[in-house]
Amino acid sequence: MGNFYHECLKGIKKAKGDNTEMITIDGVVGAGKTTLMDIIVKDLGYTPFEEPVVNNPILDKFYYDRERYSFPLQVFFLNERFNHIKNASKIKKAVLDRSIYGDVIFAKMLKDGGEMSEEEFNIYLSLFKNMIEHCEPPELMIYLEISLEEAVRRITRRGRSYEIDTEIAYWERLNKEYTEYFQAYHASPLLKINVDQLNFENNPSDREYVLTTIKKKLQTLDR
Predict the structure, then answer these.
(1) Does the keyword ATP-binding apply (predicted)?
(2) What's the pTM value of the predicted model, to 2 decimals?
(3) Are both 56-138 and 140-222 of the same fold?
(4) Which CATH architecture has domain 56-138?
């Protein structure tokens, strides 16, 4: 499984641009990506690129009919995330809430689960590989690692009906794919932070711990 993701990431440019300090944040639904992005924006002065979920015309429909909407949703996300990378590469300091690098996780999971056809997946994969050739690697990829149980608790607390109505098996599959993806990830420096016991949205000490961890990692990079 990991070999698939390893091959997908081979097409990324080998070196990042000289003028860009790009951080990408990834993790399953409920891990705290948007919250961490907001912290990095406020405390480290980065420009945010938010995940395109608020004005997404397909997302809520997808959760209730995945076979019908999986392909158009993934193409929508892929295109939006490619635009984010293009725009972020023009900015000195950018932070992305999810990115094109991990977009393939969802497409593969949906194909393996029979919710995206083989033909649709092959079209998606061709688009992904064509786009990724024009993407430079981030300076740092942050992976927010979280257990299935804690992710589900946070999803329930957040209260989006289409997420709450989704069966546990879907989130279990997603968590498994994320684990496999980040075992294979090699495109850039990677920082894994387990967030099961962290509440950096409301707990100042957790917030400071996460910020300090990120700063220390950035200091080790060849900038």
Answers:
(1) yes
(2) 0.92
(3) yes
(4) 3-Layer(aba) Sandwich (3.40)
